[in-house]
Amino acid sequence: MNANRDVETPFVSVIHSKLLNNITKMQDQANRHGVELRPHIKTHKSLRIATMQMSQGATGITTAKPSEAIGFQSITVAYPLLQKKIQILIEAQRRCKMTDLRFVVDSLEGVKSLHNAITTSASQDQKYRVYIEIDVGLGRVGVLPNDPILHAIHSELILHPQIIFEGVFSHAGHAYAAKNQDEIREIANSEKEILLSLKSRLNFNSVSVGSTPTELSRVDYHGITEMRPGNYVFLDRTQVSKGIATLDDVSLFVVSSVVSINSNHYIIDAGSKVLSSDMAPHSGQGGDGYAEAYLWESWNKKDLSKKAIVAKVSEEHGWVRRESHLDWKIGDRVCIVPNHSCVVANLAMEYVVVME
After folding, report:
1. Residue 45: left (phi > 0), alpha (psi -120 to 50), or beta?
2. Is the pLDDT of residue 282 over 80?
3. Residue among 322, 337, 233, 232 nearest 275 (CA)
4. Nearest-CA neighbor of 280 among 213, 328, 333?
5. Distance between CA atoms of 44 and 46, rounded to whole angstroms?
6. How far is CA 197 from CA 70, 178, 192, 200, 201, in A?
7. Average pLDDT for residues 231-254, to the nearest whole number?
8. Sequence-ordered list of residues with C-beta below 8 angstroms from that of 332, at least 6 positions apart, any chain
């Protein structure tokens, strides 16, 4: 593998063989446990990568934005949408002939928006599968499992004749704050138990869970019908720090050049506009600094002993801490493993794909 010398730095690169291996590994896990895989494509925002996931056996895709949903037949929009955005999706469904459009709600206002949008924009024979999102510990969106509003949401939801109550839905993103894989397994098990406990209070078939750390760590899938991880296609330094992946599993990285050197830092041409200023998802810790970096030649030889830390970022510059084991020169190309690959992918206009 060369350093793509004809491509101007900085750029985001994806190793195809590792990408495919990560996709296959998660699909194999889903198949082994009899669980449907509906990956979240906000990680990569790529039709080609989504097509790879579908060809390996994914039953549909998960999105966060209506604009990401176009072009697929079975879609879950994992976001509490207001009426206008729901109508946009329903109208797109007609144009693009989507067969299965699914929504999530976590409030009575959300149910009302969904009811109004379906009544206003949907054909009368179209049905919509809807989940109630449960807050299993992240504290972002979702109904707390013991909140009395849960029953009211369910009762109002099923009043509309075109809505099918599909089940409960969660995202255990607080697993990113866990210190190790054992803690992640505890969070994954707690998530499952919380969702299954609701079966005695609500009548549903589907239990949908989703985060890469929990799904790469989960042992017991009993009662779970679907998982929706996203980051697993690329992985990143955060997943490595939790012990659920190795650097050799990471398929996305940034290639940058050393443009200046001072007494304390090597300055590279990848700053926050490429690497982002995200330390790790959901206030977790991906490690010291914003990323780790290796001289391209060392990375290519799998010599990981000469790790460098991107200690600071400004918009167009990265500040790599100078240490005694490093001897970088202006013009050297370096390979950067980001803390959080999802935001790096979002900032990129394109991927440079390396075929091995």
Report:
1. left
2. no
3. 337
4. 213
5. 5
6. 35, 24, 9, 6, 8
7. 96
8. 257, 258, 295, 296
pLDDT at 318 over 90: yes
Q: Which two tokens stand for residue 191?
A: 């998530």
Q: What is the pLDDT of residue 287?
A: 61
Q: How far is CA 344 from CA 39, 213, 316, in A?
A: 18, 18, 14
Of 7, 6, 24, 19, nearest in space to 48 by CA = 19
- Tell me the per-residue pLDDT of 332-354, one tens digit each, with 9 for 90 and over: 999 999 999 999 999 999 999 99
- Phi–psi pair at 167, nearest 5 degrees: 155, -155
* Polymer length in residues for the chain: 356
SS3 for the chain is: CCCCCCCCCCEEEEEHHHHHHHHHHHHHHHHHHCCEECCECCCCCCHHHHHHHHHHCCCCEEECCHHHCCCCCEEEECCCCCHHHHHHHHHHHHHHCCCEEEEEECCHHHHHHHHHHHHHHCCCCCCEEEEEEECCCCCCCCECCCCCHHHHHHHHHCCCCCEEEEEEECCCHHHHHCCCHHHHHHHHHHHHHHHHHHHHCCCCCEEEECCHHHHHHCCCCCCCCEECCCHHHCCCHHHHHCCCCCHHHCCEEEEEEEEEECCCEEEECCCHHHHCCCCCHHHCCCCCCCEEEEEHHHHHCCCCCCCEEEEEECCCCEEEECCCCCCCCCCCEEEEEECCHHHHHHHCCCCEEECC
CA dihedral 278, 280, 285, 288 (to 10 degrees): -50
User: Is this model's pTM higher than 0.85 or not?
Assistant: yes
* Structure confidence at residue 97 (pLDDT): 75
Token reading at 2 = 């060369």
